[in-house]
Amino acid sequence: MLIRKNITAVLPIIGFLCMVFSPTFLIPALLSLYYGDGEFTHFILSFVAVFVLGLLLWTPSHGQTLPRRKKDGFLVVVLFWMVLSVVGASPFLFGLQLSPVDAWFESVSGLTTTGATVISGLDLLPRSMLFYRQELQWFGGMGLIVLAVAVLPLLGIGGMSMYRAETPGPMKEDKLAPRLAGSARILWVIYVGLTLACALAFWVAGMTPFDAVAHSLSTISTGGFSTHDASFAYFDSVAAENVATLFMILGAINFSIHYLVWHNRRPGDYLRDAESRTFLVLVVAVVLLVAVALKLTGYHDGVLQALEQASFEVVSVVTSTGYGIDDFSGWPLFLPLLMILISFIGGCGGSTAGGMKVMRVLVLAKMGYREIIRLPHPKGIFPVTVGGRVLKDETLQAIRGFFSLYIMTFVILMLLMMLAGLDQISAFSAVATCMNNLGPGLGTVAQTFGDVSDMGKLVAVAAMLLGRLEIFSVLVLFHPDFWRD
After folding, report:
1. Helix, strand or coil, per DSSP, at residue 164
2. Helix locations, 205-302, DSSP H
3. pLDDT tens digits for 23-56?
């Protein structure tokens, strides 16, 4: 009874969010009319169905007070992502005639900015459908809840808990403006601005206007969907690769730092921030390591070629974007495994990147070092600091808890993947690439999840959602205390 009461209380907000999302079907519908690719009806039907669904859920609450409990925000976020991923699958189901599981997988992969796919023959797909895939990643990148909080004052009720449930990173309380809606608007202004700059840069680098806009959507969102099967190798352009590398890095840096740089007119703030500085140092170190390995093993004869490929692929993986100009699963020595491992780190908190986030990894390393220096000084007090800021015990406990749950969840999902028929390497990389919202993996899933069984795809869907919502927001719903008044 209590469970039904809790769910019923948040359904009006789910309905309102569905109505907010429904216009996203209209852009590809207009593109379908322009290109005459025959997908117009599928997008219009999807728009009508989602809008009507939202209206039916929201109308009974008209004039009533919406729930104000803090924990309702977590329920709203998880239910909305579940509902949104299902309704977002409708164009794939009816337009591309994918199976229900494949359509849901593609929709979840887009919204969570994972970039894994079950579709082949992208170069032959209708352009409106290609744009829709890119659009899903763009909206999922910054978060539709954050967008709703930015433009809909109605969602100020319980807005902070929804914002915290969806926004990635350990420092979720940090705001750019006194009011939450103001912070959300700032984030989206920066997001849109970077997207427009990226599209313009791609166009100048030689892409067609369609490809430039489409790839800007999946670059800033660090999603990785492409309009071509060959991904970035299709363009064979160092200029385009350099543009993508730059904007993938920008997408993986905390958007609060972007705001500070813009507000203070001080680019040096990127290096003053401990997390972004650690992230950039990590990227440079791994790029140099991979470039040296590719050169010494003879995989590339030229130093410049090895450095260019290492730069693009490493940035693509560590930012969880997943673009490719080469299949890193075929690289020599330890490099394929290294690439998967760095995806666990991911980008900075408060960015569009996946993974555990640099801040958490940095704090875990500092906590480990603290335990070492405590051995000869058992009575000493050694606070954990980041950027001169002493972290609270609650923050340290939350990071420890997150890491423990992340590993346990990973192991369980990997065993389920093996139960679904994947070998150990494929199962390991499949769960890693989905939980870290990366895309490409190793073995069977190096290029596509098309050959994975339906059970395996459903496990992948669970991994993508858990990774995007950072585990806690989902698992809290399974605790009995959550459903008690």
Report:
1. helix
2. 209-220, 238-251, 255-264, 269-272, 274-296
3. 889 999 999 999 998 899 999 999 998 899 888 8
Q: In the block, which residue shows the tokens 């590993």?
A: 407
What three-state secondary structure class fits 356?
coil
Q: Which two tokens stand for residue 456?
A: 């395996």
| 3-class DSSP state of 456 | helix
- Provide the terminal-to-terminal Cα distance of the chain, rounded to the nearest Å: 11
Backbone angles phi, psi at 270, to 5 degrees: -60, -35
Q: Among candidates 96, 123, 115, 97, which has minimal Cα distance to 449?
A: 115
In this structure, what token pair is assigned to residue 233? 């190798």
Residue type, 126: P
Among candidate residues 235, 281, 277, the one with its CA nearest the CA of residue 257: 277
Which residue's entry shows tokens 């990147």?
353
Question: What's the whole-model pTM score?
Answer: 0.88
**Sequence-separated (6 or more) residues with CB below 8 Å from residue 1:** none
Residue with tokens 């593109």: 31
What φ, ψ does residue 92 adopt, rounded to 5°?
A: -70, -35
H-only helix segments in 59-208? 72-87, 90-94, 100-111, 127-142, 144-151, 159-166, 180-204
Q: What is the pLDDT of residues 216-271, one digit of tens each?
A: 999 999 888 999 998 899 998 999 999 999 999 999 998 888 888 888 888 888 88
Q: What is residue 423's DSSP assignment? A: -
DSSP 91-115: HHHHTS---HHHHHHHHHHHHTT--
Q: Count of CB atoms within 10 A of residue 335's CB? A: 20
